[in-house]
Design goal:
With 335 residues, this protein is an alpha/beta fold. It has one domain (19-230, 300-334): Aldolase class I (TIM Barrel, Alpha-Beta Barrel), CATH 3.20.20.70. The chain is 34% helix and 14% strand. It has ten helices and eleven strands. The strands form two sheets. It has an eight-stranded parallel beta sheet with strand order 1-9-8-6-5-4-3-2. It is globular. Mean pLDDT is 92; it is low at 1-8 and 283-292.
Length: 335
């Protein structure tokens, strides 16, 4: 561990969100989040996650999701037995609950079988999915981009919210995190995560100061050794900054942030992209992006903090050191 552990006031949270090295979740990244990354995140002391749809298999094959969950559980169990004083954090599975996801019912059954502790739901709020998670002792965190969707998610049984604010990688909202967190906290005192340009310990502490319980961090993990991303993608993360991010709905039908360089490489003008019809979303093939856009790379505005490709453990260690230092600076500032 880097530096002294700091009290984080997490007693009000569900058990699965307590006692983390850092109040942080590694967000589920399309294609990129695989067992190696999730295991490394959990061993480093933060919640690791992956989209269920990342586990693809051919027709008639044993469900790869079942295999991945077994792999993650067994590896984390071995780690915990060898390191009883610093156990791994729990893991989470992201379920795309949009009606076009034809795998959803099967994947829910697999997650219930494995008693997945944390479920992250996206693109819709559905009572039956929340009930399934609760049936095996899991909690549900639903991602939203505005206060209206937040209220709808809680009314349908979600336990907590992930506020996806402006600057987040991939599918993202357009609202300032200051406004979004404040509006939600006016009526909701449950688990609240913030997504949007969190790539340093300073920004993580700022998220907590605004009223979030945990940070939701994705883009920095693309540039890690364990991430399932091509070298060109990782290098572009390292070489890019906030001004290299483009906000567009063209690629999935949902507004999101993408690397300008990848759009240029695909032969398009990133400054003159048309909007897409939301009905173009299609998850029936286990993909959240049309195949023609597979070389369009998502990223958030916080990537300017990523200076090199390295192990996940090093990235978490760097954020932890910055988090502790930011706390000390704030204490000194406030006297």
């Amino acid at each position: 561990m880097d530096g002294a552990e700091q009290p984080r006031g997490d007693a009000h949270l569900p058990k699965a969100l307590q006692g983390l090295r850092l109040p942080m979740v590694g967000s589920p990244l399309f294609i990129i989040s695989v067992p190696a990354l999730v295991i490394a995140q959990c061993k480093a002391g933060i919640i690791g996650s992956f989209p269920a749809l990342n586990a693809r298999e051919g027709e008639g094959e044993h469900p790869l999701l079942d295999t991945w969950l077994t792999q993650i559980e067994e590896e984390l169990d071995r780690h915990n037995q060898a390191n009883p004083d610093s156990p791994a954090a729990p893991f989470a599975i992201n379920q795309i609950v949009h009606r076009s996801n034809v795998r959803l019912d099967r994947d829910i059954e697999i997650c219930v079988k494995h008693e997945v502790p944390i479920w992250i739901t996206s693109l819709g709020a559905r009572v039956e999915v929340n009930d399934a998670a609760h049936s095996c002792g899991g909690i549900v965190l639903h991602d939203i981009i505005n206060n209206t969707f937040a209220k709808k998610a809680i009314s349908k049984g979600a336990d907590g919210l992930i506020a996806v604010a402006a600057g987040a990688g991939g599918h993202a909202g357009a609202q300032s995190p200051f406004a979004l967190i404040r509006e939600i906290r006016e009526w909701f005192d449950g688990p609240l995560l913030l997504s949007g340009s969190i790539a340093t310990g300073d920004s993580l502490l700022a998220a907590l100061a605004m009223g979030a319980d945990l940070g939701y961090v994705g883009s920095p993990f693309i540039a890690t050794e364990e991430a399932n991303a091509v070298d060109g993608y990782k290098d572009m993360i390292v070489d890019s900054g906030a001004e290299d991010i483009v906000y567009s709905s063209l690629f999935t039908g949902v507004w999101g942030n993408y690397l300008k360089g990848s759009i240029t490489q695909a032969g398009m003008d990133p400054d003159n992209l048309p909007e897409a019809d939301p009905s173009s979303m299609n998850f029936s093939s286990g993909s959240s992006k049309p195949k023609s856009w597979k070389e369009i790379w998502g990223a958030g505005q916080g990537i300017g903090a990523v200076k090199s490709v390295g192990p996940t453990a090093d990235l978490v260690g760097r954020i932890h050191r910055e988090f502790v230092a930011a706390q000390e600076r704030l204490k000194a500032r406030l006297g």
